[in-house]
Automatic annotation (TrEMBL), chain A:
<keyword id="KW-0560">Oxidoreductase</keyword>
<dbReference type="Pfam" id="PF00676">
    <property type="entry name" value="E1_dh"/>
</dbReference>
<dbReference type="InterPro" id="IPR050771">
    <property type="entry name" value="Alpha-ketoacid_DH_E1_comp"/>
</dbReference>
<comment type="function">
    <text>The pyruvate dehydrogenase complex catalyzes the overall conversion of pyruvate to acetyl-CoA and CO(2). It contains multiple copies of three enzymatic components: pyruvate dehydrogenase (E1), dihydrolipoamide acetyltransferase (E2) and lipoamide dehydrogenase (E3).</text>
</comment>
<dbReference type="InterPro" id="IPR017596">
    <property type="entry name" value="PdhA/BkdA"/>
</dbReference>
<dbReference type="InterPro" id="IPR001017">
    <property type="entry name" value="DH_E1"/>
</dbReference>
<dbReference type="GO" id="GO:0004739">
    <property type="term" value="F:pyruvate dehydrogenase (acetyl-transferring) activity"/>
</dbReference>
<comment type="subunit">
    <text>Heterodimer of an alpha and a beta chain.</text>
</comment>
<protein>
    <recommendedName>
        <fullName>Pyruvate dehydrogenase E1 component subunit alpha</fullName>
        <ecNumber>1.2.4.1</ecNumber>
    </recommendedName>
</protein>
UniProtKB/TrEMBL annotation, chain B:
<dbReference type="GO" id="GO:0016491">
    <property type="term" value="F:oxidoreductase activity"/>
</dbReference>
<keyword id="KW-0786">Thiamine pyrophosphate</keyword>
<feature type="domain" description="Transketolase-like pyrimidine-binding">
    <location>
        <begin position="4"/>
        <end position="179"/>
    </location>
</feature>
<keyword id="KW-0560">Oxidoreductase</keyword>
<dbReference type="Pfam" id="PF02780">
    <property type="entry name" value="Transketolase_C"/>
</dbReference>
<dbReference type="InterPro" id="IPR033248">
    <property type="entry name" value="Transketolase_C"/>
</dbReference>
<dbReference type="InterPro" id="IPR005475">
    <property type="entry name" value="Transketolase-like_Pyr-bd"/>
</dbReference>
<dbReference type="InterPro" id="IPR009014">
    <property type="entry name" value="Transketo_C/PFOR_II"/>
</dbReference>
<dbReference type="InterPro" id="IPR029061">
    <property type="entry name" value="THDP-binding"/>
</dbReference>
Length: 351, 320
């Protein structure tokens, strides 16, 4: 008997903006100059926030911190396509998405400073707490998507995770649920190519992460993750598809973790300076600047002004975070259960 | 009043709460068309439709994680894990997330869900189908653990669990599913979580048990002036009721079908030692399974505590 071909698939990569700052006019998203400038401001804010957080850790003013340097386009570009009604299930390295959605800067710093109270996400933002257990937020996003559909809410549920998470069972269980139930869910993989010391080729033998979606029966696309327009365009299409009930999408943002895994890591132990330099030259902020300059919207002076504004926001956030009084011992027992057990109530009394 | 077994009582509670509250949804493996492998959810798909009774793919962690997302979104999901032994692959979701979502988000999100799972030994099922590792779950703050011992309390406890604002693990003793029939009122009633029940009053020895062991303890207690406490909720357990009974009887025997070391009996014994040691007239005894994995059917009767072992323990504390 002749063999029958059961499946034949293609995986696409989306690029809009090249290294020189030239955009494909057919693919460039419909954004006003003011919106594009806003994207730039947010990417700068993310960069400056990140630099400050690393410095605060070095000075002992916050605890261990996972830098986002290099991933600003992949985070700002994707979150810029969301509304505050959408739900976000982040991992722990997407502060650029938080900043884009208006998450208070003091509260972001407060979390990395080890203060539980920071995880009370402001009302009006449907963002889940940081998820340090890799990949475990992904099935939770699938559940929220089931609930949103049950409630007929026209929202998208979005979950962020890294390339390492695609090796975990929870990722695959959630991808499978999304396919089987055709959920209004957008998977945004920040493929920064390193999970601590394990490079992408140590996580998967697949030619791309995007193609994993094919096996679960829905669309997967790779985008140039350092191209803010490509990320924005792909995310915009995926959330519109989700809100309209047309099902899930997997977006692989191929980017690069320019810094260490966390402030407790030394990436020099496992990767070359040449590789880091190669990606530093592909900095997502530089690329957007070249685009803006071609449009006559950018100059070194404008950058300085925008950077000074961002630094002022971060400075104010640091001051506010550091002015917070430390939590009282009894706050150990806050919000453990709706009503403390008798034993917990007794333990609280003697704190 | 209808005589129902535990399967019917649980089914009735689920149906009544689903009719009352459209936030209640069931999800799990085979819970829909098949009505669950023990038929506990039989007829609910037909009555409430596919949006409220979801047959999921085979993915315990995915089921548990999805239930957390549903609960945070404002629903009251009831995930069924087919057997307690299959929750092991969902531990991270249950321990790291469901139990601490309220705490992690400082109250912004909560996780009102009831994880139903059959548990316990003595049903001639394959490996990992007869686990009794309830104490593992009791170690996790933020998670309540409830075990009914018969049809009447099963219905009232389940309704109370479904209305609880926090996650509840609801362990259904498989050996009892169809063993006992009791009068179960059609109308709704709640059995309060966190409260033990005096299953049999007495004054010379207190015997604490739960789940399927209660039936054996009641048999063993015949002919003794023993007070039998049915714990019903394992976390938080009703230490007040245990202390009150021990103050009266001066003797305590704890019976569980889980392994001895770090079983819930240890916590109960320690609590009584801390709070009522001077009332004791004999050492506290535990009648438990040995510290070995739950065996298959041929050895299970040598594993589960039997009526005679319980009697021996009662005799020992009475004659001390």
């Amino acid at each position: 008997m002749p063999e029958v071909l059961l499946a034949d698939f293609q995986v696409k990569r989306l690029e809009v903006l090249n290294e020189k700052g030239e955009a494909d006019p057919e693919l460039l998203p419909e954004l006003s100059d003011a919106q594009i400038w806003r994207l730039y401001e947010l990417m700068l804010l993310a960069r400056i926030f990140d630099e400050r957080a690393v410095a605060l850790q070095r000075e002992g003013r916050i605890g261990t911190y996972p830098p986002i340097r290099g991933q600003e386009a992949a985070q700002v570009g994707s979150a810029f396509a969301l509304t505050k009604q959408d739900w976000l299930f982040p991992s722990f390295r997407e502060m650029g998405a938080h900043l884009t959605l208006g998450y208070p800067i003091p509260q972001l710093l407060q979390y990395w400073g080890g203060d539980e109270r920071s995880q009370k996400v402001p009302v009006g933002l449907n963002i889940f707490p940081f998820c340090v257990a890799v990949g475990s937020q992904i099935p939770q996003a699938a559940g929220a998507a089931l609930a949103a559909r049950y409630r007929r809410d026209p929202v998208a549920i979005v979950t962020y995770f890294g390339d390492g998470a695609t090796s975990k069972g929870d990722f695959h269980e959630a991808m499978n649920l999304a396919g089987v139930f055709n959920l209004p869910l957008v998977f945004i993989c920040q493929n920064n190519q390193w999970a601590i010391s394990i490079p992408l080729k140590g996580q998967t033998a697949s030619a791309s992460l995007a193609q994993k979606a094919v096996a679960y029966g829905f669309e997967g696309v790779q985008v140039d993750g350092n191209d803010v327009f490509a990320v924005y365009r792909a995310t915009g299409q995926a959330v519109a598809k989700a809100r309209s009930g047309a099902g899930p999408t997997f977006i692989e943002c191929l980017t690069y973790r320019m810094a260490d895994h966390t402030t407790a890591d030394d990436a020099g132990r496992y990767r070359s300076g040449e590789e880091v330099a190669f990606w530093a030259a592909r900095d997502p902020i530089l690329r957007l600047e070249r685009f803006l300059e071609r449009r006559g919207l950018w100059s070194p002076q404008k950058r300085e002004e925008a950077a000074a504004q961002a630094a002022a926001l971060v400075d104010a956030g640091v001051a506010e975070m550091e002015a917070l009084p430390p939590p009282a011992a009894t706050e150990l027992f806050d919000e453990i259960l709706a009503t403390l057990t008798p034993r917990q109530a007794g333990q609280r009394k003697v704190r | 009043m209808a005589q129902l077994n535990m399967v019917q009582a649980i089914n009735q509670a689920l149906a009544q709460e689903m009719a009352r509250d459209d936030r209640v949804l069931l999800l799990g493996e085979d819970v829909g068309r098949d009505g669950g492998v023990f038929r506990v959810t039989e007829g609910l798909l037909e009555r409430f439709g596919r949006e409220r009774v979801l047959d999921t793919p085979l993915c315990e962690s995915g089921i548990m994680g999805a239930a957390i997302g549903m609960a945070a979104y404002g629903l009251r999901p009831v995930p069924e894990i087919q057997f307690l032994g299959f929750t092991y692959s969902a531990f991270e979701q249950l321990f790291a997330h469901a139990a601490r979502l309220r705490s992690r988000s400082r109250g912004r999100y909560s996780c009102p869900m009831v994880v139903r799972t059959p548990y316990g030994g003595g049903i001639k099922a394959p490996e990992l189908h007869e686990e009794s590792t309830e104490a593992l779950f009791c170690q996790v703050p933020g998670l309540k653990v409830v075990v009914p011992s018969g049809p009447y309390v099963a219905k009232g406890l389940l309704l109370a669990a479904l209305r609880d604002p926090d996650p509840v693990l609801f362990l259904e003793p498989t050996r009892l599913y169809r063993l006992l029939r009791e009068e179960v009122p059609e109308e709704e009633y709640l059995v309060e979580l966190g409260k033990a029940r005096v299953a049999r009053p007495g004054s010379s020895v207190t015997v604490v048990a739960w789940g399927s062991m209660l039936e054996r303890v009641l048999k063993a207690a015949e002919g003794y002036d023993a007070e039998v406490l049915d714990l019903l909720t394992l976390n938080p357990f009703d230490s007040e009721a245990i202390i009150a009974s021990v103050r009266k009887t001066g003797r305590l025997v704890i019976v569980h079908e889980a392994a001895k070391t770090c079983g819930l009996g240890a916590e109960i014994a320690a609590t009584v030692a801390e709070e009522a040691i001077l009332h004791l007239r004999a050492p506290i005894l535990r009648v438990t399974a040995p510290d070995v994995p739950v065996p298959l059917a041929k050895l299970i009767d040598h594993y589960l505590p039997g009526v005679q072992q319980i009697r021996t323990a009662i005799d020992d504390v009475l004659q001390y």
